[in-house]
Amino acid sequence: MTQLHLPFKFLEQAAGPNVREPWLLVLMHGVGSNEQDLFGLARLMPPQFHVLSLRAPYVLSPDAYAWFEFQVLADGERRINEEQERESRFLLGEMVASAAQQLGVPPERVVVGGFSQGGIMALSLLLTQPAKVRAAMVWHGRLLQQVAAHIAAPEAFVGKALWVSHGSADNVIPPSAAQATRALARSLPLALSGADFPGGHEIRPAELQGALAWLQSLGSAAGAS
């Protein structure tokens, strides 16, 4: 397996040994977690994917990290550290491109995905740097207003895909956030998939099965082995 040199700490699982044209799946955890969290899903991923699970750069406490810090105001609004978000988004774009190059995977076979704040980062990367990825998988995330002003031109999304799933009773990031993301996605020439699933701020089995089937369909549509 190629020894990757990247700016984030990470865990990885190589694509299956018989895969001729591997894909790259980059997973990002939610706030207060770490790279171990979503790496537990790596064994379930379609075999054409080389899986990287990243550790966010900002330390909250031992083994707890964030892509950016935020405050919840008295009215419930979230005020993010915009400098940290920009820096994470920039570094993430650089890292995804570097990992893909080191592994010999072209951008059309790169998928970024994440849960909660990690889903926010995956969505933000697809919307602002679509040339670096084929698709984004967003579990229980939301669109940042700070990112909305930097979305790429519509023609940049031709051939791209987006999975958006959410919990119908999510009390951390409300389902309306997913609805807003889908409304934006429908205004762009990309393929939108996903749904709301019963449950709160967690990935339930049916949601995971749907996302795995979507990942498999991406690879199958491109004729990946």
TrEMBL record:
Pfam families attached to this UniProt entry: Abhydrolase_2
Domain Phospholipase/carboxylesterase/thioesterase: 19-216
Gene3D superfamilies in the record: alpha/beta hydrolase
Positions of transmembrane segments: none
Keywords linked to the UniProt accession: Hydrolase
Membership in a protein family: Belongs to the AB hydrolase superfamily. AB hydrolase 2 family.
PANTHER family: LYSOPHOSPHOLIPASE-LIKE PROTEIN 1, LYSOPHOSPHOLIPASE-RELATED
Protein name: Phospholipase
Lineage of the species this protein comes from: Bacteria, Pseudomonadati, Pseudomonadota, Betaproteobacteria, Burkholderiales
